[in-house]
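Backbone-to-sequence.
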């Protein structure tokens, strides 16, 4: 099983790249443009998150902890699971792009240019934080349900993408341009909610450890 976002969000974005769609007629929300611009200047950092998955077949949600390291040179590490033994790990550095899908599983090298992973790698590294690109493939709407927090709703335009991905909701703090929460509504009725903590700076030694096998 691929990491949940790898299997749901980024393939949907990649599939939409092959579809010719009309240019957006609605302006891109300013908060989204500010958030995307801020991603390019972020320092080396790590942020913890909590993932909650609600599946139609399960009575109780599945809750997991995760961490995400992102570095100015485009390298990153994304892992899901307990801090002592992560279940899924995705790493991209200057040499390779690789995934480990279980604690005892071997590392698998991925092709960064593979359409299934390209948008994922660029999104996590900060190289694809483009509001224009998202607006091209999604219907974008902004709402303010909480003071100081804007919710950006993305609904895919391509019909075949809608079968897999119904909606993305990004909650952005307008003050510090931080992504607070990401909610994914899947085509099968399942939902995935990721709630992010405050990011923390990391040292060069911590970066080396994060990118190691």
């Amino acid at each position: 099983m691929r990491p949940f976002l790898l299997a749901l969000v980024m393939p949907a974005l990649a599939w939409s790249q092959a579809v010719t769609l009309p240019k957006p007629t609605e302006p891109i929300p300013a908060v989204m443009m500010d958030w995307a611009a801020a991603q390019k200047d972020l320092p080396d950092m790590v942020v913890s998150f909590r993932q909650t998955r609600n599946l139609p077949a399960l009575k109780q949600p599945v809750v997991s902890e995760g961490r995400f390291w992102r570095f100015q040179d485009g390298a990153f590490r994304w892992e899901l699971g307990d801090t002592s033994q992560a279940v899924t790990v995705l790493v991209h550095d200057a040499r390779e792009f690789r995934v480990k899908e279980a604690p005892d599983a071997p590392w698998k090298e991925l092709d960064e240019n593979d359409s299934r992973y390209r948008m994922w790698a660029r999104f996590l590294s900060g190289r694809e934080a483009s509001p224009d690109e998202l607006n091209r493939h999604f219907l974008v709407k902004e709402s303010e349900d909480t003071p100081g927090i804007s919710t950006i709703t993305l609904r895919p335009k391509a019909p075949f993408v809608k079968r897999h991905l119904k909606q993305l909701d990004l909650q952005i703090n307008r003050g510090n341009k931080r992504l607070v929460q990401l909610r994914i509504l899947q085509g099968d009725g399942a939902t995935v909610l990721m709630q992010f903590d405050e990011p923390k700076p990391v040292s060069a030694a911590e970066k080396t450890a994060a990118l190691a096998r």
